[in-house]
Specification:
It is globular and about 35 Å long. The chain has a single domain, classed as Response regulator (Rossmann fold), CATH 3.40.50.2300. Strand 3, helix 3 and strand 4 form a beta-alpha-beta unit. Strands 2-1-3-4-5 form a five-stranded parallel beta sheet. It contains four helices and five strands. It is 33% helix and 21% strand. It is an alpha/beta fold.
Amino acid sequence: MAKRVWLIDDDNFQNRVNKKTITKALPDVEFHIYQEPLVALIELKTSKTEMPDLLFLDMNMPAISGEDFLSQLDLYNIIVPTIILSSSLTEEMRSKLKQFRNVIKCMNKPLTTSKLAFLKACTV
C-alpha cells in the first residue's frame, strides 16, 4: 500500500480537497504537494527527496502538461505508479495516457473515496 503520495496540480484548492479525500481512503500516507509540476519533476530527476509510492497528476497545467510530465518520466526512466486526474478526459485521451508505463489509472475530477476504493487492495 502507498505510504508516500505526491499530488501534482497547479490548483492549490484542488490539492487540499484531494489530500482530504485520499486521507479518508489511505489514512497513514505522507503527502508532498506540488503546485508547480516542474519542481516535482526536478525532484524526481535528482532524487532530492524520497521517491513517492504513488503520484496523482493533473493533466492541464500551465507550465507543463501532464502528458509532457509523463514523457519526461519515461525519458529519465523514472518509474512511479501514477493516477491521472482531469476534468476533461475523453476515451481517446485515456487510451493514449495508458500507453505511458507509469499510468495505472485515469480518473475524472472530482476525486472521491469510492473512486479510490481500489487502492486498498493495491500493492502500489
